[in-house]
Write a structure and sequence with these properties.
With 174 residues, the chain is mainly α. Helix content is 67%, strand content 0%.
């Protein structure tokens, strides 16, 4: 019989790099994305026995990453509202990773302005290549909700880039 650790390694190995890249795309820095991935992997490992079919692992693991991401965003929101003065050692995750290229920094900054559900939908659809139906199942919402999130996310990204480039340099529609 296969141990839990062996099963987890076997299931995670083929999607490891894609999921880690997805986690990094959701976060405002590469290090924060790696932390998100590690936290999600730990949570998934501890709950792996609840997964009945190995074929469902990919979607299930992405759902765990999204859940951890949303929990972090929720707690960060409340931390901003609680005035505790200067926080020692706090890192500004809005700042791009220093080793990232200019386009990567701009993309991370643009994605950071989106609400979590729109950012997730955009990254899954545009970068990861997921279908709308798969995203709807992952985010547990309707197809029209995913399409709306994609459209609104794209519009916010367009507005962000137009603001960055200046009002006299609109982006071309593709």
């Amino acid at each position: 019989m296969e141990s839990t650790g062996d099963r987890f390694r076997r299931l995670l190995a083929p999607i490891h790099e894609r999921v880690r890249a997805f986690a990094r795309s959701l976060c405002r820095s590469q290090a924060d994305g790696d932390d998100l991935f590690q936290e999600a992997a730990l949570r998934a490992f501890t709950r792996l026995d609840a997964l009945r079919e190995d074929g469902a692992f990919r979607t299930w693991f992405y759902r765990v990453v999204i859940s951890v991401h949303r929990n972090r965003a929720r707690s960060a929101f409340w931390r901003r509202l609680i005035p505790i003065g200067e926080r020692a050692g706090e890192v500004d995750y809005r700042a791009p990773a220093p080793d990232a290229g200019d386009s990567t920094r701009r993309a991370r900054a643009a994605l950071a302005v989106l609400p979590a559900v729109q950012r997730e939908a955009i990254v899954l659809f545009e970068i990861e290549g997921w279908k709308v139906e798969e995203i709807a199942a992952l985010q547990r919402c309707s197809l029209s909700a995913v399409k709306s999130r994609l459209a609104r996310g794209r519009e916010r990204l367009r507005a962000h880039y137009e603001k960055q480039l200046g009002a006299d340099a609109p982006l071309e529609s593709t």
